[in-house]
What we know:
globular, 2% strand, 3 strands
Amino acid sequence: MIKSYLPLLVVMFPLIAMIFRPFVQKHRLYHYTAIVSGVTLVLILYMYPAIMEGSILDLTLDTGLGFNFDFRADLLGLFVGMIAVVLWTLSSIYSIEYMKHSHAHARFNIFSMLSLSGMMGVVFTGNLFTLYIFFELLSVASAILVFHEETPEAMKAGFKYLFLGIAGGLVLLFSIIMTYAIAGTGDLTLIGIGLQGSNWLPWIFWGYIIGFGVKAGLFPLHIWLPSAHPVAPSGASALLSGVMIKAGAYGIFKTIYNIIGYQDIVKNHMGLLLPLLIISLFTIFLGSACAITQTEIKKMLAYSSISQIGYVIMGFCLLSPLGIIGGMIHVFAHALMKGTLFMCAGAFIYKTGLRNLEDLKGIGRRMPWVTSAFSICALSMIGLPPFIGFISKWFLALGALQAMKMGNYWSGFGLIALLTLLLSSLLNLVYYGPIVIGAWMQTAPMETVSSTETDFKSVPNAAHQAVDATERITPAAAPDLTEDTASSVHIKEQPHHHKVEAASRELDNTSSHLNNTVNGDVDGTDDPNWIMLIPILTLTTAVLAFGVVPTLPLNIAKHISRLFFP
């Protein structure tokens, strides 16, 4: 173990950067957050060589209260932290354009950086006390990102997320206090902290699972997730799904393999882990089954995230080396895939105002770059080669077969896990397949304008003015307007349904003109400009590249597995 200030610096840098935020111009706030995230990534990469050689970087700060802050960077923390910061950086770049016409920019960026610090504190921690402090910081700060739009739906979803997060945190606190009281330590590098033989162990174990399971979105604690994702800005949705739910998965892994200890579970407590394995399998099926019934794209992706976290927890619960490898690779793969999918969904909404899946038919002709990225990641989610989703599911399947051979469970459970994987992939095909086919092969339905189909915040302000002109501006005011907008004045004298249709055309024409000339769209299509496209295409390239050459995540996952299965 090497004393180093780097783990502390990684955690604290986003907080330090907030001090200088008031000096940043309003229109540069998202650039600033992207730079802060990028610098945090550089700090993590600086630790990479030493940690890959087997070193652990550690710094303990004595609080004088009997509990110390312990910042520690090991291989697992490096892996999850690196994934988180890469996605955070790309999401921040994406938000430069996506959030341009939003409100409360300072608030959004402040709580994004607070959430980043909380996430880094969770994965670069050496004891339960430090983990709890930053886990709660992550829960509260990320709730503000859900609240951001301030619509009734956003407020309701935000309060649900915050309430469940606080309730789960209290249950988690109970288990942490009991762990310190019984074992006298909260050191997370130990394999088995010292709870063996305690009558409280089952209560402590399920306290950890409930506390971390709320954040992970594990059934039946998932109820916040389908509400939060659709109402949050798409950059925040990418982080909620691709990164933040992994904080819960990270905690569950630590519970199984460090706090309780793999060996003690196998010898004495398989009765604790078997229900968790069954819950993870049900989570896989439930998320996929609910996703099939959805008609709104972000809600469908939210239910898909529930299913995908089930894959991760299943891999951890198999108690096999290949199961750990599969679970870890899926943490990596899901961050790339779902981060891309939410950004693509946000691009569809931002450019067209369309959220309903039925309305996205034919979108491939209008937005070929974004639709191509969405299609690749959807195929990866199904588990088709040569994408990264195939690699993770392949190792999860091998882990299920290996668990059958190891004899930790009745052999039938390994078979059930394998069949659940296959069934879920089939269900993924059922709900992703029609979207991809419809986007490229079918014709878009007749466009209409309604309050439920159009997000007026997602189009340029001048487009709003064009719509307002059709409703409020008198002919006398026409000379002060542009020629195109003035032509819409006469709509006021037409029947109402004609006004709506004309307003729709004016909105489309004005927004298209502005987007193509001002925002610098790609090749005259409705694809967003390169500021939004670069993060989407970067993640999509990674989905394909790591599917073909999965060396980096596979090597790290193997090293993590060997820590528990030498």
